[in-house]
Every structure is written in C-alpha cells, then in structure tokens.
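Before we proceed, please read the two lines closing this message. Let me know whether the structure tokens fit the sequence:

…
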Amino acid sequence: MPQISTRASSAQASPLRKLIPFADATKARGTKVYHLNIGQPDLETPAEILTAIKNFDKQTVEYAPSTGILICNQAWEKYYQDNGIDLKADEIIVTSGGSEAIAFAISIVTDPEEEVLAFEPFYTNYNGFASLVGSKVVPVRTNVEDGFRLPSREDIEAKITDKTKAIIICNPNNPTGTVYTKEEMQRLVDIAKERDLFILSDETYREFNLDGDGRTVSMMDFPEVADRVIVQDSISKRFSSCGLRIGCLASKNKDVIACALKFGQARLSVATIDQVAAIPALENSAKLVPPVVEEYKKRRDVVYEALQKMDGVTCLKPEGAFYAFPRLPIDDSEDFAKWILEKYENNGETVMIAPAPGFYATPGLGKNEIRIAYVLNCNDLKQAMNLLADALKKYSK
C-alpha cells in the first residue's frame, strides 16, 4: 500500500473544528447549541454584497486574473485609502480569504526548517500553514497577568535564531482581544529592522478597536519598514461574509508581490463572483463598518460582565476583535468543552466553546482557558453565558 507523506500525516487538524461531531450529535438529540466556538458572525451580510451577487449577469463565469479582478484590487485600494493606509491596486493580490494570504506570506518568507515568531496564544492556523511548507512557528509567550501585552524586546530577541525569518502579529488579536499600542508595534518594527526580518501583519480585525477612536495601528503606518511588511486581510469579519472567500495580501515589496502572483497563478484565480460581490462592500466600508463595531461593543460588554460574576473566572476586558479569553476554575478545557456538549444541558440547551490549548504551540498551556466568540445577538449571549455559568458549577462538583 502506498504511504501517505509525512507532511500530510503530521498536518495539524483544526482544534477549532474537532468538536463539531460532538455538537452535531448533541443537536441530533434535540438540544439547542449556542455557538461561541468560532468566529462566524451572525449579523446580516450587507445588502450591497447580496445585490451584487443577484445582479451578476454574465453568461459565462470566467477565470479572473490571478492578481484579482482589476476593479476588485481598486476597491481594496479605496478601502485602504479610506482607512489612511497607503496601498495601491498593484501592491495587492486578491486571495481566497485571509487564510490563503497567510499561507502565501509564510511560504514567501520561509524555506523548510526556517522559523516565524508568533505571540502565543495565537490564531491556530498559523501553525498549520507553517507545517504545510516545512517551516516552524516559534512561540513567544504572552500572559493574562501582563494583559497579553507584547513581551520586552529582550524576551522577543531571545527567541530569534539564524533560522528566524519573520515575526507574525495579529492586531487586534485573535484570540485574546488585545489591541496593541503604537509603542508595542514600534518595538517589532525596531527588531525587524535591526535583525533583518519580515513582519507578517494579520489585520483582519482592523476596525474592531472597541474602546479606541478609529482603526488600530497598522504595520503600514511605519514607512521605515514598508519593504518588509506583508499585510494579510479579509472581508469575512467586517462585512459578515465568511462564505465569500475574499481576502488579500498586500506589500510595498515588489518581489513579495511577484512571488505571491506566482502562487496565485498556480491556483489560477479567486472565485469571480465572490470578487464581484466584495467590491461594493469595500467601496462603502466607511458606511458599513461603524454600526458593526458598535454592535460588537454591546456584545463584548454582555460577555465580560457575565464572566466577571462567575466564581473563579478571570478575564481581561477585550479591547478589540470579537473574542474573550477567560481563565476558568478547571484543569482541562478540552475535557470541559466535550463534557458541556455530551453530558450537560439545561432545559434542552447547551453552549459550545473553543478550548484554548489549540491556540498555543507550547504543550500544556491553555488547559484552564477557553476562547469565547461573541458572535450572537445580546439576548442569545446572555442565555449562553447563563448556561456556561451553570455548567461550570455542575462540572466542578
């Protein structure tokens, strides 16, 4: 029998999706499941997107250019200009979601056995994409006790070796909800300049600066490193359109864009209709996004206030994105996440959460933490948090 490759057999399964069979079985028993486990917004997709899909009238759905449809790239340019970010259409490659942009970026900057620094806990797919190309994510620890702030320069540089090629940063942060300051981002800029590293900047949640005034700090705000910054972006969260697989990779570095184009040519093109649908949303982001951010502020407050009332629970107030990352009075969050689906229900209802070990590269971390995605309406969130509080009491007995 032919053997599966080591690369494939050792690939990381999604820690965010491995509990889905348990949730499906729970629903099959007639129990309602409140999903707090994944960043799938429940808000309506903007009418501008849906109308563009309905009005698509081509008789043949053709391949799009591998760079992206020109007017889609131009829409991304307008979106960036509206947000005070200087990126031009020819500095942008449209990708199949932000995930492909991350995969492209890691592939562009690393060879097998080379390393990318990431601040853990971090978005779990960074690990997965690195493993697919034979490179490695090296974790740099952040702690709830320090507010999940970036470590000191000395602590970051202690992780750099001759194999280190890049630092990846997600601002606002998934999963912690931390919004990094300009001073923290400057720290990374200084390190990247002096140690000759790329910066992979995941800016998917850019506008979700829940307590700030306007967008968060972008790595494109630092012109001194413009040639070593690779931005990864997505329409999924800000326009509640995860099923439209539209993201982009953007950089001032012409060699980076040329390499991204070669990867894009290998997969031919991003879905034509998806790109057409994204254009009016990108062109009208200044109108569409602010009400979304206001709604997530309300949801954040519901979740945070509920967590504050739970015995033994520690949680920082999320500053951005739409996640909370509480520490619970438990020893095994993966066991608890399964138990709450398999063994617990209250009046025919339960809740699904994301256990935190999947957000760490260091074994053993996250055992008493979970991630909560507050992507339900406020009434459903209140009920979901009531269920979580009740489940914690019963699980601890």
